[in-house]
Amino acid sequence: MAVTGLPAEPRRITILGSTGSIGRSTVDLLQRDRGSFAVAALTAQSNVALLAEQARTLGADCAVIGDETLLPELRQRLAGSGIETAGGSAAIIEAASRPADWVMAAIVGAAGLEPTLAAVRQGTVVALANKESLVCAGALVMREAALHGATILPVDSEHNAIFQVFDFDAPDSIDRVILTASGGPFRTLSLGEMREVSPAQAMAHPVWSMGAKISVDSATLMNKGLELIEASFLFPVPEERIEILIHPQSVIHSMVSYVDGSVLAQLGTPDMRTPIAVTLAWPGRMATPANRLDLAAIARLTFEVPDFARFPALNLARQALQTGGAAPTILNAANEVAVDAFLKGQIGFLDITRIVEQTLARVQHGSLTDLGSVREADDAARRYAMHLIDPAGDPRVIRVPTRGQGRH
Ligand code: NAD
Ligand code: MG
C-alpha cells in the first residue's frame, strides 16, 4: 500500500479498544501494511478471543484485558507467543502510557478518559475516537495535550472532516461550522412511534455500522449533541456558531463556512477506515480499501433542519455546553446509564433523554478543576440516573448532591 509522508522506521502503534468497531477498522488498516507499523499494545474489555487473535496477527508487544477474571484465558491463548499479557483497568492505563508514536483512543464511554489522558500525557499523536472523554473532561484533556505537546487528531467522521477543511491559521475567517447528521433510524418516526421502538431497531443504523452505544446515541441524536460538545473543544469556534444539519445520505461528513461565503466540505462513503487513515498517515495520505464515492449513482443529496421537539437530546447537549463546568460530564454520565438500561430492556427509548434531562436538572453542576472533580460529577450523575431508573435500588444512590428539594 502506498504511504506518503511516513518515516522509514516502523511507527509504534497502540490501540485502546482494539476489539470494538473502530478498533477492528484500525487493525484492518495496520494488517494491510505490516511493514510500516509495530504494535506496542492492544487493549480490550472482555473479548479475549479476538484480542489474542489480533495480538498474534499483528505481533503486538503486549495485550491487556480490562476484565481481570479473563487474564488466565488471555495468558492461555497467548502461551508461547512471547506477547506480554496483563489485566485490569490500571493495566490499560499503563499500556496507554507505553511509548508509542500513535495511539488510537477507541474505548467507548467515560471509561476511556483515563487511558486517553495517559496517552496524551506521553506527548504523542492521539487519534481520538472516544468522544466521551472530550465531552466529560474536554478542558482537562485539551490542557494536558497543550502541556505535554500531544497532537490530538479527531477520528469521529464529522470532526475529521472539519479538521481537513478548517483553516487553523485563520480562525477569524471562519463564519460557522456545520455538523452533519444522518438523522438515525427514527428520523421520520413520530414521538408515539418512537415510544415503542426496541433496542434492535435502535441499533439498526441506516448508514453506519458501529458499536451498540453510539448506535443508540445516533437514534436519539444524543450522538450529535455529544459531537457538538466535542467540536467546541477541538475547534476554536464559539458554540453559537456550530450548527447541526440533517443529511440522511451521510455523504458530506461536515462543512466549514468562511466569511467570504465559501463552504468547504469533506465527502466520502461511510467507512471509518477513511478518517482513521487520515489520522494514521497525517500529515500525509495513505490508500484505503474504502469504496469510492460515486455521486452520479447517489444522484441526490438532501438536507433538513433538525426537529428539536422529537429529538430533545440536541437542546440538552447545547444547554449543557452553554452551562459549562460539570454539566457536560453529567449529561454524558446520565446518558451512558440510560443507554445501558435501554439496551437491557429496563426503560423505553424516550426515557433515555428524559433521564438525562432530569439528571441534568437535579445534580449539582460544580466547576471541573481536575480529574477528581470529573469523577465526582460523573459518579453523582450515574447514581442519580440509576435512582431514576430503579428508585427501589441501592439506597446509596439517594446521597447525591442535588440542587433544591424538588421531586426525584
Ligand atoms: P465498541 O463498543 O464497538 O468498542 C468499544 C471498545 O472499548 C471495545 O474494544 C471494548 O472492549 C472496549 N471497552 C468497552 N468498555 C471498556 C471499559 N470499561 N474499559 C476498557 N475498555 C472498554 O465501540 P465503537 O463503536 O468502536 O466506539 C468506540 C468510540 O469511538 C466511542 O467513543 C464512539 O463514540 C467513537 N466513535 C465510533 C464510531 C464508529 O463508527 N463505531 C464513529 C465515531 C466515533
Ligand atoms: Mg460522528
UniProtKB/TrEMBL annotation:
Domain annotation DXP reductoisomerase C-terminal: ranges: 267-384
UniProt-annotated binding residues for Mn(2+): 156, 158, 227
> Could you name the domain of life of the organism this protein comes from?
Bacteria
Report the Gene3D superfamilies cross-referenced here. 1.10.1740.10, NAD(P)-binding Rossmann-like Domain
- Please give the SUPFAM superfamilies that the UniProt record associates with this protein: 1-deoxy-D-xylulose-5-phosphate reductoisomerase, C-terminal domain (SSF69055), Glyceraldehyde-3-phosphate dehydrogenase-like, C-terminal domain (SSF55347), NAD(P)-binding Rossmann-fold domains (SSF51735)
Q: Which residues cross the membrane?
A: none
Q: Which residues form the 1-deoxy-D-xylulose 5-phosphate reductoisomerase C-terminal domain?
A: 152-235
Q: What's the source species for this entry?
A: Ferrovibrio xuzhouensis
Pfam family for this entry, one? DXP_reductoisom
Any idea which positions bind 1-deoxy-D-xylulose 5-phosphate?
A: 131, 157-158, 182, 205, 218, 223-224, 227
Query: What's the stated role of this polypeptide?
Result: Catalyzes the NADPH-dependent rearrangement and reduction of 1-deoxy-D-xylulose-5-phosphate (DXP) to 2-C-methyl-D-erythritol 4-phosphate (MEP).
Q: Which residues form the 1-deoxy-D-xylulose 5-phosphate reductoisomerase N-terminal domain?
A: 13-138
Cofactor(s) needed for function: Mg(2+); Mn(2+)
How is this protein named in the record?
1-deoxy-D-xylulose 5-phosphate reductoisomerase
Molecular function, one GO term: 1-deoxy-D-xylulose-5-phosphate reductoisomerase activity
Q: Could you tell me which pathway this protein works in?
A: Isoprenoid biosynthesis; isopentenyl diphosphate biosynthesis via DXP pathway; isopentenyl diphosphate from 1-deoxy-D-xylulose 5-phosphate: step 1/6
Alphabetically list the UniProt keywords: Isoprene biosynthesis, Magnesium, Manganese, Metal-binding, NADP, Oxidoreductase
Q: What is its EC number?
A: 1.1.1.267
Record's keyword annotation contains Oxidoreductase: yes
Q: Which family does it belong to?
A: Belongs to the DXR family.
The answer to whether the entry has keyword Zinc is no
Which residues bind NADPH per the record?
A: 19-22, 47, 130, 132, 211
Question: Which reaction does this enzyme catalyse, per its entry?
Answer: 2-C-methyl-D-erythritol 4-phosphate + NADP(+) = 1-deoxy-D-xylulose 5-phosphate + NADPH + H(+)
The major lineage groups are: Bacteria, Pseudomonadati, Pseudomonadota, Alphaproteobacteria, Rhodospirillales
